[in-house]
Amino acid sequence: MAETRSTLHEHLAGRQGSLPERARAVSTVVEGIGRVAAVIAKELAHAALRDRLGYVGGTNVSGDQVKKLDVWGHEAVEASLRATRACAAFISEEAKEPVEMTPEGAHPLVVCCDPVDGSSNLDVNGTVGTIFALRPASGKTPAGQAALGLGTDQVAAGYVMYGPATTLVYTAGDGTHGFTLDPDTDEFLLTHPNIKIPARGKVYGINEGNVHSWHAGQRAYVEYLRTPDKASGRPYSLRYSGAMVADVHRTLLDGGVFMYPADFSDPAKPKPKLRLLYEVAPMAMVVEQAGGRASTGTERVLDLRATEYHQRAAIIIGSPDDVAMAEDFYRR
Length: 332
Ligand code: FDP
Description:
Layout: H1 8-14, H2 21-46, E1 55-59, E2 65-67, H3 68-84, E3 87-92, E4 99-100, E5 109-117, E6 128-136, E7 156-162, E8 166-171, E9 176-182, E10 187-192, E11 203-205, H4 216-226, E12 237-238, H5 244-254, E13 257-260, H6 276-289, E14 293-295, E15 315-318, H7 320-331
Parallel strand pairs: 3-5, 11-12, 11-13
Antiparallel strand pairs: 1-2, 3-4, 5-6, 6-7, 7-8, 8-9, 9-10, 13-15, 14-15
The chain binds 2,6-di-O-phosphono-beta-D-fructofuranose.
2,6-di-O-phosphono-beta-D-fructofuranose binds next to loops.
């Protein structure tokens, strides 16, 4: 007989108990993201058939070329967050300024989200994702400013991966849990309770085409991973999908390390690529809650303070021993 699995709704309801209003709002918003993720998964499956692939023309605030599905995904997530009546503002990769959702700033959460992450994979039927973080609202307007703060301010974070199956992984500070979408019922079912990342892995993920621009410590660390040594399980294998969600998900389940270091071509002005509020900090919370570690190479990601909505940060994330080893190379 097939095992009965908890739905995302049941899992979230189970942790509400007598928790205060904000905790209930977290459950409402994560469920809302689950609902829109099921819609996004269907849209992705139909995109090539409905002429929804390709670019709209123009770039977003980060200078990336905007794809049709980036715009559609932003609008779908915005509508879903409005419907929760728990979100005061939405910080999106596709909007320069926060989208304010309540004139009186009354709702308890601010949501930072990249609706379609890894969008260079869209036109080749590769894996993409949605990344989200929930932060407490301040009750003031404009509400979006409450997103500017430390990574440790996040009250929940997670991602959805649109691969062969659609997977939702989230943490609300009490472990990291993974759900798989049942396409027949549109329900997310608990398939990966209490994920624990291995202390060490055998795989690293990084865009090695950028080697010329890396910090010396970063270059030395990757060289170390590639150098054979039976006793320490080297060389590691290289895997890189071009979508942060897919690379972090593999790392979370199998261990190892995913890295997007800053460009150090001008050592006085290192240039990271990934965005702190809706890529780097949420993934750091998810992985730390599974027993992993997330660093810039020199400091803990969750200790970084966001001062701008689209701020960028370097990330080295994954198994605690692997990330600690990378930090060691940055110190040398
Ligand atoms: P994309 O630009 O395709 O949206 O968010 C940025 C991101 O994808 C990550 O998902 C991914 O890990 C990274 O950029 C890939 O960047 P490179 O193409 O520079 O390797």
